[in-house]
Amino acid sequence: VLKNYWITFLLAKGKVLQVEDDLVISFQLLLCVLDYFIKLSPPAMLKEPYKSSVSAVTVNGSARTPRRGQNRSSRTAKQLDTDTKIIEILCKEHDCNLDEVKNVYFTSFIPFLNSAGILASNGLPEVEVILKQYDELYVKNKDIDARLFLNHDETLQPDVRACSQLERTPLKNNPDEEINIILPQTPVRAAMNNIQQLIMILNSATDKPSDTLMKYFNNCTVNPKDSILKRVESFDHIFKKKFAEAVGQGWAEIGSQRYKLGVRLYYRVMESMLKSEEERLSVQNFSKLLNDNIFHTSLLACAVEVVMATYGRNASQSDSTSAETDLSFPWILNVFDLKAFDFYKVIESFIKAEPSLTREMIKHLERCEHRIMESLAWQSGSPLFDLIKQSKEREGQTDQPEPTSTPNMPFQHNHTAADLYLSPVKSPKKKASGPPLSATSPPDAQPAVTPQTPKPQKSTSLSLFYKKVYLLAYRRLHTLFLHLLSEHPDLEPLIWTLFQHTLQNEYELMRDRHLDQIMMCSMYGICKVKNVDLRFKMIVSAYKELCNTNQETFKRVLIREEQYDSIIVFYNLVFMQKLKTNILQYASSRPPTLSPIPHIPRSPYQFSNSPRRVPAGNNIYISPLKSPYKFSDGFQSPTKMTPRSRILVSIGESFGTSEKFQKINQMLCNSECQLKRSAEVGAAAPKPLKRLRFDIEGTDEADGSKHLPQESKFQQKLAEMTSTRTRMQKQKLNDGNDTSASEEK
Question: What is the spatial distance between Cα 456 and Cα 440, in angstroms, rounded to a whole number?
Fold first, then answer.
């Protein structure tokens, strides 16, 4: 039965799906096949609750015993309630969206059974028949022979030793207690968890603008409501059509469902952005912004991209090994006819406006931003080149495309999507200065107001873009440099100076090319004039080992219009010819002035990868909430957390017995006694413990950002715990309790 079931699924997936590696749809199809086999199995072979469900279907006239002459589709329609009972159970067991699975079942799976000649009246499909059909499909597609999974082929088995490794922390488990080895999530389970979490976030959202949004619309000089609704409806038809073309015509409704989730997220994030702007600027009239077509298109595209990535395989795989599909970014840009540079402007504000985004989604959007900065924004037709040209005209010189993009300036800014889409403007420095309500309309935004002065204004979007490009460029260069030239530290500032000079002054070399191509050529050029033996073969070999790289980057480089060749040919025919004079200066007695190394903050998007230790605590760690989640109770709660110790506190859940509190109290007391002793020895009193911080949006001190004005319930609860702990410590100190207990490590 297992062999029959598996091959039937492989055959269905191969014939129904155009994008076969769509993990979520594949799993939904797997449930449909399982539903089909359960219905055809004798009730005695099944366990509850499937046994009683199959018995009920049999009593009402199962598809296993149809009356002759009765049309199958009409039987299916009449038995809709009973036929989907097993599907409902399967969806509940596996946290799947019932409506989506029903859609797959009736629009794709039933037609597949008919086209494959698999009739329920004949019982289970014959293995020989479906094996023959799968053989034909396998030869045609030349994909992996998935039948090998049935044979437990060793090349397809997971590394059991790697999977059984515990997440280790300094606090070891009690040797007297059992160690429960928790295996990592499968990609399917990770995807299902991400989808369920997204759906829960959007449960309270609507398909239409909320009352709060309507108030913002009504406050506008020109009410944008009609144009927003019209735009959303128009893209609904476009997205549905493009999705069906990519995945298959039978999946158009699935595409529509995903788009509607994106629309809910679009309205939710828009409302959050406007509330933040109102607080920042003390204004309520956002007519200019809310009537900007590019802003809305970008925001909607970003929301839909989050939904698509959540459903896609890359939602559960954050590394660069996951293969791209037809629906992967930048597919969404083509659907919405959107320039990459315009899409980039909304990413950071989107992440900050939606604190419920999962870590995987934040990393995905950050990776989208990196791809835009490294290549997509530099494609021909991008508004980026016009902005650089206008910036040169504004300064009246050709060697400074954007003075505010100096590499050594700390990366801190308070710019939002409103500033970027309505740029060039001078960013507001006071709350009363207000956005873009009377600002000059830029070339990269929807024109609405005639410029007041002939001199182009400073582009906030260009300045911030260059800052981010410099940060990304130096990170890449530094990583590659450590791989190749760690014994020549004096060369790094020279290579960076040439690299930065090229990006700033010879930016046309980036047109239709990749940031890493300029980086590799800069490294090779400096080593050449400094007589350091470094060949391109060594550079590309090290480059292939870096994260998020592609061999096409050095194998296929634009030489001239529609002509491509290797990175070596590009260096000789293009890069060296353009920068020969500049490169030779590094070998002279008067080399160019070195560019300052960029100030590198931590990404404002990243979460901590490991538990944080409580300052002065005795082996006490706090870890951010991690997946997987349990959704059966209608709310999110962690079923597994790290560190894997025996004393875990999860805010919002039952903590357990009072003994755990006593253990934590004792541990805190011990650590405080250590502080007291150190205070007696030293002249000054110990510094008070800092409030615990998590790596959530807006808490990184390095980039000058601040906390959000509204703290989450989790943060408030954590503050209460910290306050309680401090009072307990003071009480113990007053009592003169100098005892300490040793904690097993």
Answer: 10
Q: Do 381 and 367 meet the contact criterion of CB atoms below 8 Å apart?
A: no
Rounded to whole angstroms, how far apart are CA atoms 272 and 275? Answer: 5
Task: Show contacts of 660-667: CB within 8 Å, 24+ apart.
Answer: 664/620, 665/728, 666/741, 667/617, 667/618, 667/619, 667/620, 667/743
CATH architecture of 187-374: Orthogonal Bundle (1.10)
Using only C-alpha atoms, the chain has a radius of gyration, in whole angstroms, of 30
- The pLDDT tens digits of the residues spanning 696-745 come to 333 333 333 334 444 455 555 566 666 666 666 666 565 554 444 433 33
Q: How far does Cα 237 stand from its chain's mean position?
A: 26
Name residue 303's amino acid: A
For the chain, the structural domain boundaries read 1-59+76-158, 187-374, 460-586
**What are the distances in angstroms from CA 194 to CA 315, 714, 721?**
8, 20, 29
Structure-derived torsion over alpha carbons of residues 302, 308, 310, 314, reported in degrees to the nearest 10: -100
Q: What secondary structure does DSSP assign to 616-659, as a single string?
A: T-SS-EE----S-B--TTSS--BSS-SS--S----TTS----HH
Distance between CA atoms of 315 and 258, rounded to whole angstroms?
15
The letter for the amino acid at 666 is Q
Tens-digit pLDDT profile for residues 643-700: 444 455 555 545 556 666 677 777 666 655 555 555 455 444 444 433 333 333 333 3
Whether the per-residue pLDDT at 421 is higher than 50: the answer is yes
So what's the pLDDT on residue 702?
33
List CB contacts of 8: < 8 A, sequence separation 6 or more. 33, 36, 37, 118, 125, 130
Spelled out in words, what is the top-level CATH class assigned to the domain 1-59+76-158?
mainly alpha
In this structure, are residues 343 and 333 in contact, taking their beta carbons and an 8 Å threshold?
yes
